[in-house]
Amino acid sequence: MTKIICGVDISKKHLDAAIWPGGAFERFANDAGGIAALAAFCTGHEVELVAMEATGGLERMAFGLLWEHGLTCALANPRSVRHYASAMGFLEKTDRIDAIVIARFALSKDLKPTPPASEKQSRLKGLAGRLRQVTEDITINKQRLSRLEDAGIRTSIEEVIRLLKRQARQLEGEIASLIDDDPLWAALDKAFRSVKGVAGRTVARLMADLPEIGTFGNKAITKLVGLAPLANDSGKMAGRRSIRGGRCNVRSILVLVAAVAKKHDPSLAEFARRLTAAGKPRMVIRVAVAHKLLVRLNAKARETRAQFANAT
Fold this sequence. Notes:
Elements: E1 5-10, E2 14-20, E3 25-29, H1 32-44, E4 49-53, H2 60-68, E5 73-76, H3 78-87, H4 95-109, H5 119-146, H6 151-180, H7 183-193, H8 200-209, H9 218-225, E6 233-234, E7 237-238, H10 248-264, H11 266-277, H12 282-311
Parallel strand pairs: 1-4, 4-5
Antiparallel strand pairs: 1-2, 2-3, 6-7
């Protein structure tokens, strides 16, 4: 039996909802009252899944409140939805068409529900994201400082850097307290740090942006992060494999950390040497080492989760 899906196209002010199959359509305000009305609309049409695109924040309120209203929701990748629309011949683009396309995409892809993050997980993600921003701002201001000769301007930038460093230390402390207060997170933190080169900021990024670590197989987790080389073969042609997609924040930190970890880990260093001897490009080697590091961290997380489950 075909599922009944409600596709929701989200903008700053409106939620455009389309039922598929059926085609019923209605527009709601993107506020608490409008979301409650959308929930009633979905319930009235016996909707089994509400699908919406991950739009970088505009979807958060609707997504969270619809779950609270008892509706099962899923998030779709906007780029995938757009490719699907083109493949299905939807060349026009309106809010109504977008909502229908999202619903049809969810149905054909058999999208699975995406449970909302817990309050604690959301807090960790927010703190880790802010720490990343502050760290980037420190780097930018240091670059500005290196090019300046005016004493007054240098003093101003140095004050900003000191402020940002205080904020970074405060954020690191809050993240550490949050992790220490959760027994499973504390156990994962200890397991990750057993790999030389993996420090507190890396752990925070992993646990904030990759909460699935240890629950997926190695192939699935590397593809989720975007560290799995994707085939590009056709007939007798074996194309060059490359990585793309995935969670770029996690991937970028793993590539950096892997470069440090291989200095301390003989097996990673030997792996990198073999690739170098085989004539592999430098970036390919960096990605391959990051891939191996992620697999190792995933295995440690899987073991830790199993031990924690047995202990409880």
